[in-house]
Every structure is written in C-alpha cells, then in structure tokens.
Amino acid sequence: MMTKLDIGALQALCAIRDHGGVSRAAVVLALSQSAVSHKIRRLEDRLGCQLLSRQTGQSLFTPEGERMLGYARRILSINNEALTSLSTDPLNGVIRLGITEQTVQGTLARVLGHFSRLQPDVAVFTEVSQSLIIQEQLERGELDVGVFQLFPDQRRQDDIVLNEAALVWAKSRDFDLNFERPIPFLAFAENCFYRLWAIESDPLPPHGLSTVMKCASMSGIIESLKSGLGVAMINAHMVDDDLEIISEGFAQPPRFATVARVRKNANSRAVQALVDQICLAFDPVKHRVA
Fold first, then answer.
1. Single pTM value for the model
2. C or N terminus of the chain, fewer CB within 10 Å?
3. Which residue range(s) make up the domain with 227?
C-alpha cells in the first residue's frame, strides 16, 4: 500500500521553512520542539529519505527536503481550498491588509485578485504604505496582516519569510561619481528603513551624501536614478541595463527580507486563508515561498 502523507507533518515542514527552524516552528504551531522533530522524523521514515540536515554549517533543508517542501505547499493549499469550498461555514468578514509598493507591483496584485474570486464573502481592504508605517499600524491594531520588508535581524519569531534579496547602491551609467563633493542622494521618505540605514552607514563617501530628492515611490526613485540625478540604494533585482551597481566608495548594504506578519489575535480562518495564498504565490515550488 502506498504511504500516506500526514497533514500535520506537512504543516510542520512548512512552518520550519517559514519561521527559520524547528524551535521557532514549535512556538508558532503551539507544540513542543520534540513533537515537531518527531513529526519530521516520521515523515522522513515514510518517505525513506532525509528532509532536514542535522549538521551544522549546512543548509537546513536537504535537496529532497526542498522538493518535498514544494509538494507540501501544494497539498496544503489544495486541502485548504477543498475545506473552504465544501464547508457549510464559508469564510466571511473583513481583512485589513498593509503592503508595500515593492510587493503590490508584482506577486500580491495577482494574489488579491485570485483570493477575491475564491472567497467572495471576504472583503480585503488594502493599504499601500512603507514598511515602518505598516509595522506601526499592526502594533496599533489598525491592520490585520502586513507584507513588508525589513533587515533579517529585525524579524520576529512569528514572521513568515517570503523571500530575501540583496540591496545595492546604484546609479545611471551616464552619471559620473565625484568623490571630491557630497554625493547627490535620492532618498525614500523620512521613515524608510533603507534611508535610515544609508545615512548612518559606515563608511560614507569622503564628503558624505547630499539628499537632493525624497520620494516615497519606488518607481519615482528608479526613474530619477535613470535620469542621472544621483545615487540610491535599491533592490538588486531592479538594476536593469540603464543602471549599474556601485561597487566602491560606499558601505555594503545588508540583505533584506520580505515577510508576512499577522497582528496578534487576528489569526481568523479568513486571515489564515489569505496568508496561505500569499505564501504560495511568492514561490510555488518552495513556498517560498522572505
């Protein structure tokens, strides 16, 4: 008889990826660390392969674990969709969602459209804002779910990492750096965590940075960069043929993570269904599926 996969074990596997380890997954799942480890070992025994590496200095997931993670995401998504579709208690209510411009321009716009068709009785009110503002709104109870960027060391234990990416200093290929003068700096708004890191970075150029623009819009910063107005710190994925990465004279920016965070006491079935869709959409193979 073919081996059956345990839903709880698949949930544990995904939680380990989402939250960065067995101990963090245990907290989120409200289980002991040994219970989570036992679920994974039973799953490994059933599959006949090792899913997690137990050796220090190696990636947490083995190649087989990465493959299984993709299957687990799909199985759990279909399981949840079936429960929702056939349930006599359909999802309903209002979800207040905060997202950044960086996320709404791609993956999340499609997720929201799909979710509204899948769950017509759930109203999602979406507000596009900056990462630090979204975090403050979650703390004040003004949002139920936030999807935003932060530095990895700022993560909370229950944050779900959707992806990670590199930050770089960039400029137009036609813009000549002159280190004999302050460097023109294109900054995001006052409360942008990119900007706060940039102005406090060490080392700065010899004569520092001179802010020549403040703009809350990512597209505005990119267009200004391409026009040769100055330098900016942006996601490395946004560097196209018109831009180039600055490799000398500036401090190396840290990587950043995109995370999903649910407000405390806001984890309703509707909220969980939306978060599941967001996680799956960022990378249907790994989840990762920040």
1. 0.71
2. N
3. 166-254
